[in-house]
Amino acid sequence: MPHLADRAFAATFKHVFTFSLLYEDSEVDNRVLELDPRSRVLAVSGAGCGVAGLLAAHPARIDAVDTNPHHLALAALKVAAARRMTSHGEFYQLLGRGRHTDPARALQPLMTVLPAWIGRYWRAHHRRFRDNLYAEGLVGTFQRLLRQKVGVDADFLRTVQALPPAERLARFEPIFASLRRWWPMRALVNTPLFLLGVGVNFEQRRRNLRASRSESMMNVVTAQFERLVRTDLETNWFVWLCLTGEFNHDHPDAVPPYLREQSHKLSLVAPTRVGFHRASLQELLADGTPGQWSHFSLCDVLDWMPAPAQHRLLHRIARVGGPGAVVLTRSVEDACVVDRVGLSDRFERVEPTSTLASELERTRLYGRVNVYRVVSGA
Ligand SMILES: C[S@@+](CC[C@H](N)C(=O)[O-])C[C@H]1O[C@@H](n2cnc3c(N)ncnc32)[C@H](O)[C@@H]1O
Description:
With 378 residues, the chain is α/β, with parallel strands linked by helices.
């Protein structure tokens, strides 16, 4: 039954614009992937902050893949803007503040380097930048509702971020308690609409509940809020966006790395060739040839799959990547996926890198951020 539900989920999810922001800490990716000018990366795009962030390392090639055209088109826009908008001020206005007085004019020159369907997409959707890109999409809509209920502003965040974690938690506790009691939240949080809106399919929901030893997503969500409050709030762009609808524009590092001035400078001169593939990772890998990619950045798509599908995907990666290839993957669980699906003869987990990455990941959504190296492709 979960397989059927997840097939319906995948069929629906690929038509829905869910994310404007990648809910993964791409600062961690840049740190652990160790790309160089010979690297060829196959990366699941999601909202594209991670893909755009890879440009600064000047890999030879990036292939961004996603089944959801909304997310892939946004990723392509972020990449094109990082490479072509020479003014950091204008680039930041568009994608840091998420708004532009004349988005049609700003986007038009970027489209000349992108596939035709992406040009058509943005001609139809440029109004997303009229008010605030980050209030758009299903996640943006949920967060808007949450903000209306919670009523927290940037001044509140600035005040609490200076407090020690225990005091911070005490300031947030009444807010969490009111959310737990709030009937629309209680009604919504266990529905398929909520899962669609936060990009968690039924398989990953099951993993989330198992990891948190709970029967309700409400407990998963509140535990995550509590973990988030303990992070460095000043630079946690996920918290700022959720609670204020904006990044913390006072701090240059409180945005995904691709938006930072230094990274933008490097992106402007990146020699990297970038392809955008509206397909599944499985399809792209099935056609892949040995040695085609040296790095595989999977977001958390393995969490969306049952164990046999995880096995097939990792098996293909080992074949296509060959010895030395690197795989970056996130999971809401602590378990080592390679051990669980019986592929520890093909992959080794890179340590202490994986443990460090898991600790650094500031979304606090994942139990583990793991880096694996292929030891045998055959
Ligand atoms: C797995 S989702 C989950 C949310 C993710 N953690 C984020 O922050 O965006 C990320 C992206 O993966 C895409 N996706 C899921 N399964 C895929 C697959 N098998 N092949 C390609 N893309 C996939 C979704 O369309 C979505 O855009």
